[in-house]
Amino acid sequence: MAMKIGEKPFFDRVDDALENDFMRNAMASAQDRLRDKKLDATERDDEIGDWEEWRSAGEEIRRHTLENLDYYLDQLSENFAAKGGHVYFAKTAEDANRYIQEVARKKDAKHVTKSKSMVTEEIGLNEALEDVGCHVHETDLAEYILQVDDTDRPSHIVVPSLHKNKEQIRDTFKSKAGYTGTEEPSELTAFARSQLRDVFLEADIGITGCNFAVAESGSISLATNEGNANMVTSYPDTQITVMGMERLVPTWDELDVLINLLSRSAVGQKITTYVTNLTPGVEEDCVDAPKEFHLVILDAGRSNALGTEFQSALHCIRCAACVNVCPVYRQIGGHAYGSIYQGPIGAVLSPILGGYEEYGELPYASSLCAACTEACPVKIPLHEQLIRHRENYVAEQGKPKAGEKLSMKAFGIGASTPSLFQIAVKGAPTFLKPFVKDGSISNGPGPMKPWTAIREFPAPGKDNFRSWFKEHKRGRK
Ligand code: SF4
């Protein structure tokens, strides 16, 4: 499945990530930067008024839309088709790819340009198009970098190449694209621009994702910063937009609210540099709009969440604010999740779309601190959904692992039997002594091993709370 990144088991990927100090430092500083920009544009911005009211409005819009999804999808597809557009409802990723391959075949397409789109990553569209002889060109700078680097995979839903620094990008461009310049961002960008200019001109088909579709007019809205989406949608005669079936709003008024929430939460801007709204049906002599416009509306597992406790996960507007505050993402980065959707929303969404067998361990990639829920501009209760997933995962497996069950049972007996608890507390300093160095435990035994391999655990002292309390009660200290 194209949503999947890598073949290693989850905990092996986590181990790899924890050994990569460079990546972890890069993630930490990127998270701090992105979170700070978001706070400046939301809670700290007096101009926007009460941010909590904006969040409530966003939550209400998304809830109302999802509760009436069939109605608004009908309205969207009717309005899109009435203006001459072609609508295709794809039940699976394979259905969507087949439809798009067919359009490419009919057009005898050789070159396809794409703007950034996680949903096309999700369905593996590039590979499907290459199978029918198309050259697919990513035109978003971050996606272009990943494509030049032998189709490296995204590590962040808004900034897909977050795991690379400018020196690495320079080296990639040098070894794989004939670049001869320095690591200066302006030089690197100018090089990418020069490479992409001709690509835009020769494209037969342009493909985009969809930030939001507007049901009342049958329009597509794209929020971007680089202008490449405008090039993708204005040069080729044929345009295809792929949207997750939940990514729509009833009217332009709701779009206004959600674009504000998205721009401010995702990139800390009052509004992105471009907000491009596209509706099929152009004048015959219009030269900068597609003559043929296809809208592929994708289910691919989304309907699994409808009518369940996970329905609100479909409210997501893909801003990555939850990713940018997650302490687990900070430590393990994006690739460790093994899904193109990372961080808290990835840990909630991936099991819904791809099942527990593939992604059942992801909900454990959370400290349940709820920072994600607090950051979410449409108030998705992410930490609660992570707990629900854990419950379902254990229930689906039939029974917890034998070792886990045994240790929890032993802990339960120990913790609920005062005499055993006291023996354990008193014996702990002696038992753990061989592992203590400079007042803390490193490389501890048994279940402590993974924890203490990367962090220090305070060594238990001779005094414990019970003895301290006893002494105080007697009034001796
Ligand atoms: S879950 Fe909320 S915070 Fe996370 S990406 Fe989606 S909308 Fe943004």
UniProtKB/TrEMBL annotation:
<dbReference type="InterPro" id="IPR009051">
    <property type="entry name" value="Helical_ferredxn"/>
</dbReference>
<protein>
    <submittedName>
        <fullName>Iron-sulfur cluster-binding protein</fullName>
    </submittedName>
</protein>
<dbReference type="InterPro" id="IPR024185">
    <property type="entry name" value="FTHF_cligase-like_sf"/>
</dbReference>
<keyword id="KW-0004">4Fe-4S</keyword>
<dbReference type="GO" id="GO:0006089">
    <property type="term" value="P:lactate metabolic process"/>
</dbReference>
<dbReference type="InterPro" id="IPR037171">
    <property type="entry name" value="NagB/RpiA_transferase-like"/>
</dbReference>
<feature type="domain" description="4Fe-4S ferredoxin-type">
    <location>
        <begin position="306"/>
        <end position="337"/>
    </location>
</feature>
<dbReference type="InterPro" id="IPR024569">
    <property type="entry name" value="LutB_C"/>
</dbReference>
<dbReference type="Pfam" id="PF02589">
    <property type="entry name" value="LUD_dom"/>
</dbReference>
<dbReference type="InterPro" id="IPR003741">
    <property type="entry name" value="LUD_dom"/>
</dbReference>
<keyword id="KW-0411">Iron-sulfur</keyword>
<keyword id="KW-0813">Transport</keyword>
<dbReference type="InterPro" id="IPR017896">
    <property type="entry name" value="4Fe4S_Fe-S-bd"/>
</dbReference>
<keyword id="KW-0249">Electron transport</keyword>
<keyword id="KW-0408">Iron</keyword>
<dbReference type="Pfam" id="PF11870">
    <property type="entry name" value="LutB_C"/>
</dbReference>
<dbReference type="GO" id="GO:0051539">
    <property type="term" value="F:4 iron, 4 sulfur cluster binding"/>
</dbReference>
<dbReference type="InterPro" id="IPR004452">
    <property type="entry name" value="LutB/LldF"/>
</dbReference>
<dbReference type="Pfam" id="PF13183">
    <property type="entry name" value="Fer4_8"/>
</dbReference>
<dbReference type="InterPro" id="IPR017900">
    <property type="entry name" value="4Fe4S_Fe_S_CS"/>
</dbReference>
<dbReference type="GO" id="GO:0046872">
    <property type="term" value="F:metal ion binding"/>
</dbReference>
<keyword id="KW-0479">Metal-binding</keyword>
<keyword id="KW-0677">Repeat</keyword>
